[in-house]
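Ligand: copper (II) ion. Inputs:
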Amino acid sequence: MARPPDPAQPRLWRRRQVVPLVAAAFGLGLGGLLVQRRGASGWMENEEHPELPDRPGDDPSEGGGGLAGLREFDSGTVRWENGRRVREFDLTANTTLLQLNRAVTFKAWAVNGRVPGPTLRAQAGDRLRIRFRNDDSTSHSLHFHGVHPAAMDGIRPVRHGGSTIYEFDAEPFGLFPYHCHVAPVTRHVSKGLYGLLIVDPPVPRRAADEMVLVMGGYDLKGAGRNDLYAFNGLPNVYRDQPITIAQGQRIRLYLLNMVEWDGPLTFHLHANLFEVFRSGLSTRPDEITDVITMGMAERHILEFSYRDPGLYMFHPHQDQIAERGCMGHFRVLPGSR
Ligand SMILES: [Cu+2]
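Predicted complex:
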């Protein structure tokens, strides 16, 4: 039976057509963020020198494929029920070992084996059906930000081997974090159980090269403070493997702060200004700036383009956080614009 097209898919193809060189360059860096070994004794590090080695994450086979996730969106499986689009997602919590750099392996609690969890994507008005399974020995849950009934708020722990279904409407459009809400929540979140849900507006945003950056921190010693920080789970991955973009191309950045233990962070983009769409709740920019402050779980859409080719930094302006892994580069390639 013929079904209406999934509006999420044409958007992605358009984006790919706009920046084929980006996709080609990006393909070189794809690998798994994760080392698929489980059940070891836990994180290991050089206790005397938790700082990063000179070239962390430069071997994709060692978990250096942190570019994975940057431009990945999970639109789920679409079903039609009573004429309405229902988007189903399967999310599983488990313990996963992350190779943060050559010296540090971290025993993370992850969604679908990755930190952050998959970026879920839906259209405003969709019904979302999220099947959550907990394969971890510790109880977890998934709490979504946004509007939904209390029974779907995800604050009840799901025990080992258990599962539940979170079902609610994707409204309004905007950006909504999701994360485990089992106490102590700070620990459950900082160990990796978080991700982002994007709800697209009924009238699509204009074409852009879209990407996701989630800021996170790692408390390696269980001391209530972060030793390492990362964009998209892997410290310094975009410092060492710059994100390739095209000159003059509009970039749409879905940015989320999930750094526990610290106060608010900023995000600063070098040699440029960006438009801010606060929480993604509008299709008109709320302000234009080059540094924005974000508390825990705050998220915004940032849009910009680079006039000149070159290499440009982005990072929180808390420089001690940037210097411990939350640092990246855009490499702007010459284009025809
Ligand atoms: Cu948890």
